[in-house]
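At this stage, I put together one protein's amino acid sequence and its backbone structure tokens, which the following lines show:
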Amino acid sequence: RARRRARELWRSQADPAADVVVAADHVVVPSRSGALIGLKDGKPRFRLSTVARATAAPTRVPGGFVVPGEDGKLRLVWDSVRWTVDLPELCTAPAMYDEALGLVFVAAGKHALALRASDGEVVWQQRLEAPLLEPCVGGGRVYVATRGGMLHALLASNGEERWSFRAGRSLSAPPRLLDDVVLLASEDCSLYAIRD
């Protein structure tokens, strides 16, 4: 039986520097030139200056996109840079947004932070023992894990640690939520399911 070939729908010379994000009917590309490029059907629809090259995918929040930059800053960009926050360390993972709380959660090196999406005000900051993977948020908790295998459950409202869990070995991916269960993929060939 003959195999079907895929058909290329479009191609854009957007020069991606990090993962792309789908927002509504646009593909948003952080480019190597320090801009976010919004594409619709492969055609540029908007270009937003991020000042510095993105180190991770942008996160959609009301009023624009939160973008971590290679200059160690986190910015909310739309028609202009609406706010800028100096991070304690470089952020290489996408931020997470909690609409109910209006907070953006960031893992920057060994630091977990919560910021108000509206103005970038740091609500809380927690320093942990090792560099963190991308956070996940749900049920009033922020879950951050180290590549070394330690998972921390922090209260989303104030950063207070509720509990921690050590996986058998290093983690191969950031934590993910399935309802109220945290999933951890470990390099000991295990998938851990953890609940409060």
